[in-house]
């Protein structure tokens, strides 16, 4: 399975926001969902996207979106604003689960389940040199980057992988990884 985990420092953990951007940069979560799960006219069945939201009022919150189960979604920002407001206020949506798992616990659980943990950083080893197969969890930070302590924790279970020396948007990184894995 191909999985992505976005650490969002400020993403709201409640539905009281005017726009995704004003919801502690939930627009970044939306952009990452789009790049992780959607192709042209279809969505990826073999991808799971996770975000750990650490903003107010009830952090942390773990959002898990499974491509195989996902239904009733479009790709525009407005419809995802509605979907995120619904799930963050406790309503259900097919393919989306919300729980209280914190970042470090999720890393530990995925590693114990046999997932290769790959921490995305422009300072890591070139992705081309990595053996990419089996279950993989790609971990990335938001617009500020991964907090140092969480990055160090994740690196106890995995390795730092780079897509080049330039710093890209989190969503671009997911798109690049998907493209890269699609070629294998
Ligand atoms: C917008 S960047 C964060 C920028 C932040 N100012 C920093 O210095 O980390 C968002 C995330 O994308 C990932 N990223 C950005 N550029 C990358 C690259 N060249 N290779 C691998 N991951 C990258 C990292 O996980 C980063 O935390």
Overview of the structural elements:
The chain has 184 residues and is of the alpha/beta class. The chain has helices at 26-37, 77-88, 103-112, 148-155, 170-183, and strands at residues 2-8, 38-39, 42-43, 47-53, 61-66, 96-99, 116-126, 136-141, 158-162. Strands 6-5-4-1-8-7-9 form a seven-stranded mixed sheet, sandwiched between helices. A hairpin with a 2-residue loop joins strand 2 and strand 3 (42-43). Helix 1 packs parallel to helix 5. The model has no long low-confidence stretch (mean pLDDT 97). S-adenosylmethionine is lined by residues 120-122, 140-141, 143-146, 162-164, 166-170, 173.
Give the mean pLDDT.
97
**How many domain regions?**
1
CATH class: Alpha Beta
Secondary structure tally: strands: 9
- CATH-wise, what's the superfamily? SPOUT methyltransferase, trefoil knot domain
Elements, N to C (H/E)? EHEEEEHEHEEHEH
Query: What is CATH's topology name?
Result: Alpha/beta knot
Unreliable spans = none
Span of the ends, CA to CA: 14 Å
Please work out how many helical segments DSSP would assign: 5
Helix content: 25-40%
Which structural class do you get from the secondary structure elements? alpha/beta
Radius of gyration: 15 Å
Bound molecules: S-adenosylmethionine
Q: Using the alpha-carbon principal axes, give the shape.
A: globular
The portion of residues forming beta strands comes to: 25-35%
The biggest beta sheet, please?
A: 7 strands, mixed
């Amino acid at each position: 399975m191909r999985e992505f985990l976005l650490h969002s420092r400020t993403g709201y953990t409640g539905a009281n926001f005017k726009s995704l951007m004003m919801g502690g940069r939930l627009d970044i979560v939306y952009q990452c969902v789009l790049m992780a799960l959607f192709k042209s006219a279809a969505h990826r069945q073999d991808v799971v996207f996770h975000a750990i939201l650490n903003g107010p009022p009830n952090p942390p919150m773990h959002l898990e979106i499974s491509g195989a189960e996902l239904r009733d979604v479009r790709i525009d920002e407005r419809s995802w604003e509605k979907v995120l407001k619904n799930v963050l206020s406790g309503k259900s949506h097919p393919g989306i689960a919300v729980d209280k798992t914190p970042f470090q616990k999720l890393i530990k659980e995925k590693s114990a389940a046999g997932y290769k943990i790959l921490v995305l950083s422009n300072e890591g080893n070139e992705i081309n040199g990595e053996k990419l197969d089996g279950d993989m969890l790609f971990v990335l930070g938001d617009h500020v980057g991964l907090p140092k302590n969480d990055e160090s924790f994740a690196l106890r279970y995995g390795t730092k992988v780079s897509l080049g020396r330039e710093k890209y948007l989190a969503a671009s990184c997911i798109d690049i990884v998907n493209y890269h894995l699609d070629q294998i």
